[in-house]
Amino acid sequence: MRINRALRIGVGALAVSLAAALTAGCGGGEKKSALENAADGKLTIGIKFDQPGVGIRNRDGSYSGFDVEVAKYVAGKLGVQPEGITFKEAPTPQRETLIENGQVDFIVATYSITDARKEKVDFAGPYYIAGQSLLVKADNTEVTGSESIAGKTVCSVTGSTPAQNIQKNFPDTQLQTYDTYSLCLEGVNSGALAAVTTDDIILAGYASQSPGTYKVVGEPFTTENYGIGLKKGDDELRGKINDAIEAMFADGSWDRAFQETVGQAASYPTPPTPTVDRY
Ligand code: GLU
């Protein structure tokens, strides 16, 4: 009897620890690296789903925008066809976590390279340089640029560099934060908020989506170096993505991608290419 009972308990404990080991295995510990996934012909890439011209999930389920084109080009250089890509939404406040948890292989989502973010993830690039700007309703005459936002409420996304900049350097401006820029737009549309602030190309995309409703005002007032975010310490992947970015600059694909996305949607001139930082 006694032996039987001990045995039963022992088997039970074994089952529990087996289940725990299996869960741990599936949960992250044994996830393949991005380059291993690429070797299997598959990549999961984080993009924005709600930024017209830059990164958007269309009504028919397709994806388009400048970041999407960059993602596809880089994937191609890693040996992955467009059919092998799974695009995953990477909202601003969740990007580092998505990379750290291995839920994406890398992120191409208007992602500014900053020292604080570099403590958690690494960046290839930059592949584009944007600048913080302001979007207001088309009939707004009060907000004409960053000099005129004192005493106003401006909206940005939680954790974004533009939100941090307002908080730090514009003490007389009130900051409203949401999880997406589309929510900020609703506030501007209803008149509750004076402006949305984020990178110029994102705002240009929103303005062009609703002609006559909004306008982008003033000069860009920060420098946002867009990088491709990837797992910290994966230097091999970073090197290969940097090679791909440079190839995209060199063979004319970068120019074409820009013109066909942001350029076309928002009549935006194609800027010069940045220099990749191989840190
Ligand atoms: N580039 C800025 C950032 O990475 C703003 C754009 C965004 O929220 O994605 O925070």
Topology:
Elements: H1 2-29, H2 34-39, E1 43-47, E2 50-51, E3 55-57, E4 63-64, H3 66-77, E5 85-89, H4 95-100, E6 106-107, H5 115-118, E7 121-130, E8 132-137, E9 153-157, H6 161-169, E10 174-178, H7 181-190, E11 195-199, H8 200-209, E12 214-217, E13 224-231, H9 235-250, H10 253-266
Parallel strand pairs: 1-5, 1-6, 9-10, 9-11
Antiparallel strand pairs: 2-3, 3-4, 6-13, 7-13, 8-11, 8-12
Helix pairs in contact: 3-9, 3-10
Bound molecules: glutamic acid (GLU).
Give a structural overview.
The chain is globular. Helix 3 crosses helix 9 (about 235-250) and helix 3 (about 65-75) runs antiparallel to helix 10. It is built from 10 helices and 13 strands. It has helices at about 1-30, 35-40, 65-75, 95-100, 115-120, 160-170, 180-190, 200-210, 235-250, 255-265; strands at about 45, 50, 55, 65, 85-90, 105, 120-130, 130-135, 155, 175-180, 195-200, 215, 225-230. Helix 6 (about 160-170) links the parallel strand 9 (about 155) and strand 10 (about 175-180). About 40% of the residues are buried. The protein has about 280 residues and is α/β, with parallel strands linked by helices. It is about 40% helix and about 20% strand. The chain folds into 2 domains: about 35-130 and about 225-265, Periplasmic binding protein-like II (D-Maltodextrin-Binding Protein, domain 2); about 130-225, 3-Layer(aba) Sandwich (D-Maltodextrin-Binding Protein, domain 2). It binds glutamic acid (GLU). Glutamic acid binds near residues 109, 110, 111 and 112.
